[in-house]
Amino acid sequence: MSESSQTEIVIAPVGFEHLRQVLDLGYRVFDTTVKPYTSWSLTAVAEHLDSGDSACWVALDGTAVVGFVLGSQTFELRDDWGYLEWIAVDPAYQGRGIAGRLVDSCCEALFAGGASRVVTDVESSNSASATLMARNGFAPAVTVTLFVRSSQPDEEPGRAVRGVSKRPLIRSGRLLGDHRNP
Ligand SMILES: CC(C)(COP(=O)(O)OP(=O)(O)OC[C@H]1O[C@@H](n2cnc3c(N)ncnc32)[C@H](O)[C@@H]1OP(=O)(O)O)[C@@H](O)C(=O)NCCC(=O)NCCS
User: Fold this and answer.
1) Measured between alpha carbons, how far is 27 from 174 in angstroms, rounded to an integer?
2) For the segment 54-76, what is each residue's pLDDT rounded down to a tens digit?
3) Chain centre distance of CA 149
4) How far, in Å, from the CA of 115 to the mean position of ligand 1?
5) Assigned CATH topology for domain 3-160
6) What distance in angstroms lies between residue 98's CA and the mean position of ligand 1's atoms?
7) Which residues line ligand 1 (CB under 6 A)?
8) Which sequence spans correspond to the domains of the chain?
9) Residue ranges of the chain with pLDDT lower than 70?
């Protein structure tokens, strides 16, 4: 951590100049095996930049990206719900309220863009993320449990979901190119 980080972390709109650092930080902190239908990739970041939505922010220590949030103005088929999709803070900077500031910036932008709700999905074992959301105005609404049946009857069910996606660059339902009608 640099000396400047003791005094000022700036929250700024994400730009193309941040792309590489955002991607690298995500690879360091996200465990996408717990939600095996999602994938962290260049595409996941780039489509947010492409969309022109203003709900994507970085936390900067000087020019170093130490956190980010990626939000979008729609959630699945709901045009009236914003989606706070990805959030991360560099482990060396966690516990200092940076994620809370990123959540606020993202939600303010989504509400200003017309969202009546902002939703986010938290994996059940991610207590840091659940606490972050609970402390920042989110309340649990709907719980969805991924039930899994394996093709191998003797296989432990949890193992069956830890595979590599056949379409690692396509996020379910939110990318053009997934052959769903708009
Ligand atoms: C979740 C994450 C973004 C939180 O970042 P952070 O900057 O440390 O969060 P903040 O400092 O703003 O803390 C927000 C609240 O969450 C709490 N919190 C943070 N980490 C926690 C943990 N590991 N366990 C329990 N509570 C935690 C803080 O105490 C704080 O609550 P408080 O206001 O009552 O003190 C960070 O842990 C992270 O990057 N995790 C890996 C990526 C991830 O899982 N992202 C979410 C899925 S996309």
Assistant:
1) 21
2) 899 999 999 999 999 999 999 98
3) 27
4) 24
5) Aminopeptidase (3.40.630)
6) 9
7) 29-30, 86-89, 94-100, 126-129, 131-132, 135
8) 3-160
9) 1-7, 157-182
